[in-house]
Write a structure and sequence with these properties.
The complex is a heterotrimer of chains A (227), B (598) and C (267). By secondary structure, chain B is mainly α. Chain B contains 16 helices and 4 strands.
Chain lengths: 227, 598, 267
Amino acid sequence: MATTLPPPKPDVGRPPERLEAGHNGNGGFGNLVPADGNLRALQEYSPPPSSSAIWVGIAAISMSFAAFTSALIVRQGSSTDWRHITLPSVLYLSTLLLILSSVTLEIARRRVAAFMSGQETRADVPKRWLYATLSLGVLFMVGQYLAWLQLRSQGLYLATNPNSSFFYLFTALHALHVLGGLAGLVRVTRKFGLSTLRRSTLNATSYYWHFMGVLWLYLFFLLWMKI
Amino acid sequence: MHETSAAPAPAAQHHGPPTTFISKHVFSLDHKVIGLQYYGLALVAVFVGMVLSWLMRIHLGWTNAAIPGLQAISPNGAPGGVITPEYYLQLMTMHATLMVFFVLTTAPFAAFGNYFLPIQVGAEDMPFPHFNMMSFWTTLTAFCVLISAFFVSDGPPLSGWTAYAPLSAIGKVAGPGEGMGQVIWATAIGIFCIGQLLGALNFISTVLDMRCKGMTLSRLPITAWAWFITSCMGLTAFAVLMPACILLILDHVAGTSFFIPSGLVINDQLLPHSGGSTLLWQHLFWFFGHPEVYIAIVPGMGIVTHVLVTNMRRPMLSTKALLYSMWALAFLSYMVYGHHMFVSGMNPFSSLVFSFPTLMITIPSTIVVLLWIGSLYGSKLRINSASLFALGFVSMFVSGGVSGFFLAQPSLDIMLHATYFVVGHFHMVMGVAAMFGIFSGTYFWFPKMTGRMMNETLGKTHFWLTFVGTYCIFMPFHYLGMAGNVRRYASFTDDYLQRLIPLHQFITIAALFTGSVQLIFFYNLIYSRFRGPQASANPWEGTSLEWIMPSPPPWNNFGGKDPIVYHDADQYGVRTSTGADYIMQNSPESAVVVRDGD
Amino acid sequence: MAKLLAVTIIVIAILSAIPVVMNTWKAPADISTHGHLIDNQMSDTMVEAGVSFLAAQILLAIFIWQFSSPRTDGKVKTFPGGAKGLVIAAIVLVGVEVLALGAFGSKAWAQVYFTPPGVDAMPIQVQAGQFAFYFRYPGPDGKFGPLHPEMINEGNQNLFGLDPEHDVDSRDDIVTAEMAIPVNKEIHLLMHAKDVSHSFYVPALRIHQDFVPGLDLSLHFTATQIGKYEIVCSQLCGLGHYNMRAYLEVMSPQDFDDWQKKQAAAQ
């Protein structure tokens, strides 16, 4: 008697809500008994790699800024040529914009999740929020550039005095990393448009973007306090 | 019978088999190819670094020696073939930079780690193959940028691989090579940091997220742990070196004064800098620099343990204790960096504070050595090239390590700081030991990577001559140091150093001899690659997952099916149904350990 | 082959130890008041390090010898006490050893760095620059004139950047290329870096200290033996680093006075 196996379920192109059996070679332990009978050894669960990877990246970036911070503190302590400068006023606005972009990103994520689970049928709603985040991010960068222009108009360049050195250094490096974040957001938006976006990609990009906001708040505070 | 999972393994970042020559051998996403590329880079770097050291040693033994051909290569650096003092320092700087970054960080960690870490955790590849490929090409770019320093007008920097400010920061007034050469150096190192960070990202994610079914963290082979620990260190250490390099470059090209205080005068000119901190560079550099030396040695510890366990046919007395000690070394390595700065002018109280964890770090180091030695007891040690180098590692690590007892104490550092004692210490405990780890890993894993065995006679000859040779080179460094021989001297003009020159000459001859011996290894590599006898899948009867795949492995490691793991990698010295004394990690057979009175 | 390795390891270990035990290459004789603390610490450390070194290498060799012949009984034995014993031994023995070394060693360090110079220590300033050491004595007024780096002019022999025209204290300062000190007199050495990092290392005096541009550091010491010694730079400072040295002459008080008068006349 012939037995036929049911055909395999087609992949509907939706990112899994949670890790299913077989992904990344982990999970699906129900039928596996370890030789030494230690069932507890099987409880380990493997999340998608991008979520641990993004934390690794965030850790590395944090260490770098910690190193720069210590350079700032030592440099300030070792010299007599520290001349306090007033932070360009545009920075307050750009900070607000960056925080807003995190808010819009979170809204975008929820809309994407709703779309993925079928509760939301219009693709342009999450897209709108993603575009909003991108725009706010770009506006933030414009604000940073304006801040540099404001400093230059006061005659403060990179090597004018140590404060200005650190100001340009911190803001430029942060902007460089934000550029990376913007590239990630563009990638997410594109993938969403093509229906190839995975939840892990969206999450990783979002964590990075929020980290840019947190990092900026820290730097802003540091510059305000020290410079 | 080894089970594999019923369903084909999907992969988070699955990539299809490479088809073109470029995608197979050049821009490859395959971690194995990337690992081999790193190994090739390390081979080139070690060759260049070794030749540089020969030039240095010849000059130290015979200051006025005219080296044939050198004038053609560098008419400024060696007019008439005689090395000038500045050229000596430039050779020294490049020797150290190449060796520390492109050999000791690259080979044990990036080369072997890239090749074997995914395999040992049972994965098809690393989670981010594109980042992985980028990390190699970034590292190669860094190497090319570094080498380009030889070709700029003034040559490479002469400030040592430690590049202390202000010498390294004030530009070409400081000396030849300190202008463009120093900027190139800092740029190359900055690029290298990026490559390493990308690599560390992949390694950490592989261990955390790509383990196959049954591969719990406690079942990871010790080499996988070693690479994981090293990546964690690399992540934090290189993330501090890069800022330091950026600040240094800014001092050069942007007129800033991060590291340069005011009031400095060279050639009767007051330098236009002010307010920087000389010591800031040292703090930033050594915060990176000390973990870096552990980054250089921890993978070697993993490799040597792995090789010894396989060849002793028994596990370590306590793999856990070894693992915890390696973690302790990594953790403590961040707290000891000030021992490079005992007499640097930092607060002398800080020196005492730093010496305490430095002395404490002896404890985990001793534990690992005692575990290696103690595990030999009652073992069934097999002697082959791989195990010889592993045993040589232990001996070298002991020799290099005990000089640490001296250097950890600030009061003794008064006599030994910046002498050849330090140079002997780090060459033995980091340089030679790590090289032995690389050799051991090569002889051990060559059959797996190429499908052929290396020639044992050549391998053993290589071992004997290198073992004795490196002792002849580096043990005398300690005597020189105890006599007060200052390091980084292009030649010895001081009265009290004259009587030490014969010892330097002895060392030079040993160095030239031992260096030439490495040609045997190189020849063995090339010859065996093409003409070596065929290797089986598991020539050493090892338990870890690299031995379940054919030699060499297919592009997707496990043939599209993830293995399932039932044991840790320590199942040696066991009684099995087949009569073998080991059980592989993916064998469902239960282990019955046979020890002592059984 | 394993037996050969075992023998080789032991031979290397013993050969390595011989020059140390025989003191073949040793530091110059100590001429300082605090050096004996360092030297004692050095010998104590040498004994502990030497014993550890020899014990580890010999044990390694013995086990390689004993446990590498092919054995057919198939059983693997465990080191008595297993890992636990070894780990505890490492922690306790090494821990105690290094703590002891650290505790005793800090005495020598404290003597050099935590004690202030005596009130009548003789001040001498040393300036390190590419590639020479220069010394300045305060002269009869006992005071050093201020330094003006912008006035340094080696061509005119204004090595320290002094301005005797406007600074009264500079007028009697004595600048020399070699350092002379009276024996058994405490010296307070004021260290100034002109351009990059250098270091002041006198092995015989058991002192070693980096010059840090931007920081004014000082040392104090007393020499106990008349003679001529070398001060060498030990911090890489450029192409002339290998050649950067000055002579330290320890003289009798009478000879020192004569020397100082001669130097003052030559200013």
